[in-house]
Every structure is written in C-alpha cells, then in structure tokens.
Amino acid sequence: MDLPIIYHEDYVAPLPSGHRFPMEKFRLLYQMLLADGVADKSQFHAPELPPQEWIELVHHNHYVQAYCNGTLDAKAQRRIGLPWSPALVNRTCTATAGTVLTAKLALECGLACNTAGGTHHAFPNYGSGFCIFNDLAIASRVLQKMGLVRQVLILDLDVHQGDGTALIFQNDRSVFTFSMHCEVNFPATKQTSDLDVPLSIGMEDDEYLQTLDKYLPDLLSNVKPDLVLYDAGVDPHHGDKLGKLALTDTGLFRREMQVLTACLARGYPVACVIGGGYADDTNGLVYRHSLLHRAASQVYRHYRL
Question: pLDDT tens-digit profile of 44-73?
Fold first, then answer.
C-alpha cells in the first residue's frame, strides 16, 4: 500500500472574497500533489461526515449544537474569525473526520497525511483563531474510545501555541501535548502544555532545527506513544503573514524529514495534519504545505511501510 493521504472536496467551503483564510488552498494542495507526481489518485481516501458523538467526546453539546445550527452568538462567532455557513459546518465536520481517518490509517500503515486539519485553538466550549472543532483532540479521544491507542503524543509545530489542545488535556497523562511556537504571537494568553518551547522572533532554520532536536528524541523515548499526531503548520515560514519566525522552504522540508524520521526510526506511527499557513501568495503557501507530503512520501518509501 502506498502512503495514505486524506482529501475530500468538502474541505473547500466558500468564504467571502478577500477573506484572509484561503479555503482554496486545500483543493490546490490536492491538485499540486497530483500534478507534481507526489501522489496519485489511488492514494487518496475520502472521509465521511462523523457522528456527533465523536465531536462531543471533546466539545460541549450546547456549543456543538449552536455552531452546527447557526445559532452561535455574534461574539463567539467573531472569536472564531470565519463567517458561518452550512458549507463551512460541513467542511469543519468532514475535516475532523479526516484527521480521525488519518490516525487510523497511520496505525495500519505507519504513516498517513491529511490535506487539512490542525485546528488546535478550539476549546471545549468555544472556537478561536479560525478553529471550530479541535480535530487533534477529537482524533485522540475517538481512537482511545475504540481501544486502538492508549498513549498519544501531540507534536505541535505550528507557529502559534496549541492552546485549546493544551487545556483539553491538562492533567491527562494519556495524551502528551508538546508545542514549539513563537513566544510573542497569538494567543496572547498561553495555556500550559505538557511541554512548551517558546521561540524568539526571527528564528531561522538551523537554530529552529537544533532546538527541535534538543527535545524530540527524548520526548519520544519518555512518552513512548502508540501514535504521534503531528501538526505541521507552515506559518513559521519567513513569508507568513502571521508567523514572526524566519524559516525557509528548505528549513520546513528539513523539519518534516527530521520529525518523520525520528518517529518512524523508533517505530512510532505518525498521523500528519497541515496546520496553519497564511500568505497572499497562495501558490507559494500551497507549495509549503506540500512539503509535508513530499517528505512523507520519501520517508514512507525509505522505511518500506
């Protein structure tokens, strides 16, 4: 079996013209992976809409109902930052199911990648920072409930702290949360992950990768996860509008190779989501997201998974 990749047409939900969250990047990423020969259509798996009970393993029923029904109050909607629509509800739920499917396929195959996901700012009873339901937390809980995993490591390298994920799993030893993020950036109020590594503004490739190497091997050895959920946000890139770090395309690719090799060399399956990325140059942004899948394809072949 080739590297499993998860994509669904419902990942693309239209937003008003000029909105700074580029929904089209999900479709363009799929198209780029095919056009560049990174993957072929046989590798793609489409998730179905999830049962509401999956979402409510993490989120409060009243919040889930209000969002899905379009009755969330205006303040809560502004905090999310995305205009509500039935299409966006469908996209949100489908993408969440996509991360669950990614995690299940990673357990079967050793490595799998989503073409969406990483909504780590969603809290149990509200959304924030373009994040509505926390797919990383939901996937962890669903697989635990199915009895497929006991110990999960959430490895979050998005440039913003995974504050929602950190709060959800506070005092929960079965899910270890690691967040390496720009210290002076959103969210203004940080939560406490099991391990937080704040980075200084303007950090470049070598220092970033050396910092990651300082923590990752010991983290894997100490946690011994049944599954690693990897949030591969590309917003640490120097061209990102919301990032404040200074990684290059090469640095991002080296990061993906470093993470995937470290995990698979030790026998830990990895489920990857693309995380955040914000730029006016959509093609450049999509290429940066594709680096995860390019690295995963190489590592998958190397380990003959």
Answer: 999 999 999 999 999 999 999 999 999 999
pTM given for the model: 0.96
The three-state (H, E, C) secondary structure of the chain, written as one string: CCCCEECCHHHCCCCCCCCCCCCHHHHHHHHHHHHCCCCCHHHEECCCCCCHHHHCCCCCHHHHHHHHHCCCCHHHHHHHCCCCCHHHHHHHHHHHHHHHHHHHHHHHHCEEEECCCCCCCCECCECECCECCCHHHHHHHHHHHCCCCCCEEEEECCCCCCHHHHHHCCCCCCEEEEEEEECCCCCCCCCCCCEEEEECCCCCHHHHHHHHHHHHHHHHHHHCCCEEEEECCCCCECCCCCCCCCECHHHHHHHHHHHHHHHHHCCCCEEEECCCCCCCCHHHHHHHHHHHHHHHHHHHHHCCC
Q: What is the mean pLDDT of residues 242-247?
A: 95
Residue 220, domain extent: 5-302
Crossing angle for the helix pair 24-35 and 282-302, to the nearest 10 degrees: 50
> Number of structural domains, the chain?
1
Q: How far apart are CA 204 and CA 305, in angstroms?
A: 32
Domain at 22, CATH number = 3.40.800.20
Q: How far apart are CA 84 and CA 69, in angstroms?
A: 10
Average pLDDT for 32-45: 97
Question: How confident is the model over 273-291, as pLDDT tens digits?
Answer: 999 999 999 999 999 999 9
Contact 245, 208 (CB under 8 A): yes
pLDDT tens sequence across 73-114: 999 999 999 999 999 999 999 999 999 999 999 999 999 999
All residues at 6 or more sequence positions from 268 whose CB lies less than 8 Å from its CB, including other chains: 153, 220, 225, 227, 228
How many other CB atoms are there within 10 angstroms of residue 305's CB atom? 18
Length of the chain: 305
